[in-house]
Automatic annotation (TrEMBL):
It comes from the Eukaryota. InterPro entries: SAM-dependent_MTases_sf. This is Class I SAM-dependent methyltransferase. Pfam families: Methyltransf_23 (PF13489). It comes from Symbiodinium microadriaticum (Dinoflagellate).
Length: 253
């Protein structure tokens, strides 16, 4: 109620109401600021001991997907999303015109929307956030990437799969299924950012075991074009190779 009261008095002051004693109405705001100061002081003391813990999920569901409040917030405030437009612009040079693309781990689907607005490719957004299809009015299809994925309305593979800022949230024991889903739905290539594996060469080996080969030149160009540092650090481009050239995927894990 204190916050509601504060908002009301701020509105009231903005209307120059009760201007004989405006200082009185600033007291509610002062109390909120003092409470916030006390809260952050407590967090400063307690958070350093809690943050290293990995026995629970920080803002994520069990299989790594975000809470639906994240998508609701980004739907209400789309400008809050960190969208790597440098990467997107480079993708238009990488992807052949008319390609189909699945954006796995799309949250509210802004990457797919941007690509679709260009008319160069046809992108489809997927995410595991509970209720994401309803929250986004159907722009994003709900799938759990940590379980075997079958898309009934698109049973065939897409030309390309885009997967950014997802792999690092997948539990290690479910990473095999996650990567299998990416490989199953990528007919020509895969653009992947990060895995739970900290070493880039090991991440590369696991992806290539699914029947891909990293395109070193395209990877370097894409990283150079990125505007978001943590995406630039590990995003990579993989192209599909003949099945007989790939290592058996089961041996990669």
């Amino acid at each position: 109620m204190l916050k509601v009261s504060t908002l009301w008095w701020m509105f009231d002051l903005g209307q120059y109401s009760n201007t004989n004693n405006p200082a009185k109405h600033l007291q509610a705001l002062l109390k909120v600021l003092q409470q916030a100061e006390a809260l952050f002081a407590e967090l400063l003391i307690n958070l350093p001991e809690v943050l290293p813990r990995s026995d629970h999920f920080w803002g994520h569901q069990e299989h790594g997907m975000f809470m639906n409040s994240t998508v609701i917030y980004r739907t209400l405030f789309p400008e809050s999303a960190i969208l790597d437009k440098g990467l997107l612009r480079r993708l238009l040079r990488l992807l052949p015109e008319g390609s189909s693309l699945a954006d796995f781990g799309a949250l509210d689907g802004q990457y797919s929307s941007w690509l679709n607005d260009t008319g160069w490719v046809t992108a489809f957004a997927f995410d595991g956030v509970p209720g994401v299809t309803d929250i986004t009015d159907g722009r994003v299809t709900e799938v759990d990437l940590a379980e075997r994925v079958h898309i009934e309305w698109h049973p065939q593979a897409f030309d390309w799969v885009l997967c950014l800022e997802v792999a690092e949230h997948i539990p290690v024991e479910l990473e095999h299924q996650f990567l299998w889903n990416l490989g199953r739905h990528a007919k020509q290539g895969l653009i992947l950012h990060g895995t739970q594996t900290s070493e880039l060469h090991e991440s590369k080996r696991r992806v290539e075991a699914l029947g891909f080969l990293q395109d070193v030149g395209a990877t370097e160009d894409l990283r150079a074009a990125c505007e978001v540092p943590w995406i630039a650090a590990s995003v990579a481009v993989y192209r599909r190779v003949d099945a007989e050239e790939a290592t058996d995927a089961e041996e990669a894990f």
